[in-house]
Design brief:
The protein is of the alpha/beta class and 448 residues long. It is built from 17 helices and twelve strands. The chain folds into three domains: 228 residues, Rossmann fold, CATH 3.40.50; 165 residues, Rossmann fold, CATH 3.40.50.10490; 29 residues, no CATH class.
Length: 448
């Protein structure tokens, strides 16, 4: 099971100022209130991601088993919450768990990216998974229309079996397409927001296709959820980390850096960026007051970014909380040969494993940050497997909602995203957006 090491988020000989452990007691009432609100939301069916560990995954497993053995690749078409979790799981486990099938994710409208994906696959060996709850997401639907056209031309008799759609259970454009065209389909749950949906059909289908043990994913999530029921917050990783980040925000630490010391977990930090930014970055609180709250998530990679970002983190503005992700045991490792035993410049490395050097550098960075008075924490993975990934996902999803309650904002909506969507519809000539298009033309005329 993953372990949350929070010692450098509390007072210690190096950190000054820091959050003293005694200060956590002062917020006990806020913690109790936030937990009560979460329980109330769960009972009313708002926080559906809490219940995903109990879902029936047999339709996914049966579907994957029914696929023709010739399918070696899956291309996921989605954006945001319909893409980032898929990438995080696949890239975290593809090497350490020896996954044989490949997942590609087209999560942009960049034509070069689409060309590169199509160039890397063989169409006859690929199944495409279109993921959008509304069925109207412009980016995803553009890719869908291009690829359906390609598939129809190349496989006019059986293109249907090369496409699976994950969308709303009953309504929306794509659900109607599923009914009309008889495509295989899965469901984006009604009460699970996109950025919380990785442990639903949204992320489980591609994971199961790749060979990830999705039952273990959900088991790890259930274990973390059980841990979150601890009344002692010091034994409760998601709520403790949420409270500490909340307190550091009040101290002006408005940047949250996630720094995996594992290349495999780099896309996990991408997934976290959306979760934390879109959930907590809000203009208004629940009373409608302007508060402009949020913590900017940044990703870094150890050891790579020790040579690019750590200088800023140790000597620049003291406005960050840094979280390391570290792995204790790697399935794949190398021993550094001592090929220059007579040269002290490099002989000290001889006989050591690469993983030893990697984790020594992480600890060294931790010490350097502490000496500079910079708060940091470490989320420890004993190894990279499905169970530990499921636990980490659930931890951050619960932490995010809990922190939102402490901030007294709605962590489930994203009103700031809608303005851009509307402007895109207008610019692309969607019917019903003529007024917005006129406003945009006026904007362009006044800024050129």
């Amino acid at each position: 099971m993953i372990r949350f090491q929070y010692r450098n988020l509390l007072s210690n000989p190096y950190l000054n100022p820091a959050i003293p452990a005694s200060r956590l007691v002062n917020f006990a009432d806020k913690v109790v209130s936030a937990r009560q609100q979460i329980e109330s939301d769960r009972k009313s069916g708002i926080l559906g991601f809490y219940d995903l560990p109990e879902q029936d995954i047999s339709p996914i497993i049966d579907f994957v088993h029914s696929l023709d053995d010739s399918f070696a690749d899956m291309v996921v078409l989605g954006i945001g919450g319909s893409a980032l979790g898929n990438k995080a799981l696949y890239h975290a486990l593809k090497t350490e768990q020896g996954l044989k099938k490949r997942i590609f994710v087209y999560d942009n409208v960049d034509p070069v990216q689409l060309f590169e994906i199509l160039d890397a696959i063989k169409l006859e060996n690929t199944i495409f998974n279109v993921i959008t709850k509304s069925g109207t997401t412009a980016e995803t639907m553009a890719g869908y229309m291009i690829l359906v056209d390609i598939l129809k031309k190349k496989f006019p008799q059986d293109y249907h079996r090369r496409l699976v759609i994950t969308t709303d259970r009953e309504k929306g454009f794509l659900r109607q397409v599923v009914k009309d065209q008889n495509y295989a389909s899965f469901v984006v749950p009604d009460n699970v927001g996109g950025r919380f949906s990785v442990l639903s059909d949204v992320g489980l289908l591609s994971s199961a296709f790749a060979g990830i043990d999705i039952k273990a994913l959900l088991s790890g999530a259930a274990q973390m959820r059980e841990q979150s029921e601890q009344s002692d917050i010091m034994q409760n990783p998601p709520y403790l980390n949420g409270l500490l980040h909340f307190l550091y925000m009040r101290e002006g630490k408005n940047i949250s850096v996630m720094m995996p010391y594992s290349h495999s977990l780099y896309d996990f930090a991408d997934w976290y960026r959306q979760l934390w930014a879109e959930s907590l970055g809000k203009r208004y609180d629940l009373r409608g007051r302007e508060i402009y709250v949020g913590q900017t998530p940044v990703k870094a990679l150890g050891t790579t970014d020790q040579h690019s970002q750590i200088q800023l983190y140790t000597e620049g503005p003291n406005d960050k909380v840094i979280t390391f992700l570290s792995v204790e045991h790697f399935q794949h490792d190398y021993v550094i040969p001592n090929i220059h035993p007579d040269r002290e410049e490099v002989s000290y490395l001889g006989g050591k494993k690469l993983s030893e050097l990697l984790n020594a550098e992480r600890l060294a960075t931790e010490i350097a940050l502490c000496k500079a008075g910079r708060p940091n924490a470490n989320l420890i993975f004993p190894e990279l497997n499905a169970q530990n990934l499921g636990a980490a996902i659930m931890m951050y999803e619960m932490q995010t909602v809990f922190t939102g309650k402490l901030l007294q904002i709605n962590p489930l909506d994203q009103p700031g995203v809608e303005a851009g969507k509307i402007a895109t519809y207008a610019l692309m000539g969607k019917n019903g957006y003529q007024k917005e298009l006129a406003e945009i033309k006026n904007y362009i005329d006044n800024h050129t």
